[in-house]
From TrEMBL:
It comes from the Eukaryota. Keywords: Cytoplasm, Disulfide bond, Phosphoprotein. One of its GO terms (cellular component) is cytoplasm. The keyword Transferase does not apply. It comes from Rynchops niger (Black skimmer). Transmembrane segments: none annotated. Residues 2-86 form the Ig-like domain. InterPro entries: Ig-like_dom, Ig-like_dom_sf, Ig-like_fold, Ig_I-set, Obscurin/Obscurin-like_Reg. This is OBSCN protein. The gene is Obscn_3. It is found in: Cytoplasm. The keyword Transcription regulation does not apply.
Length: 86
């Protein structure tokens, strides 16, 4: 199985309270395993507030819905040993 690396990392975002924000990270291979999103070192799950998806097989996205002040912090995308933060 090839080593999956991050091709295009996360970008810092500034949004208003109540808005949605989407983070994107592109990886080198499709069907990457061991992918994890975190906010302030807390693992995020796909639910009504956090939409986690994959576009075109390589672009992993995280959308935080109706953000609040509690959502301020570092977003981390991790695939295997590689990480990107914003």
């Amino acid at each position: 199985e090839p080593d999956v690396t991050i091709v295009s990392g996360l970008k810092d975002m500034v949004v208003f309270e109540g808005d949605d924000v989407t983070f994107r990270c592109q990886v080198s291979h499709e069907n990457a395993r061991d992918v994890e999103w975190k906010l302030q070192d807390v693992a995020l799950q796909n639910n009504e507030m956090n939409e986690i998806s994959v576009e075109k097989g390589k672009i992993h996205t995280l959308t935080l819905r109706k953000v609040t002040e509690q959502d301020i912090g570092t977003i981390t995308f991790q695939v295997g040993p590689h990480t990107s933060t914003a």
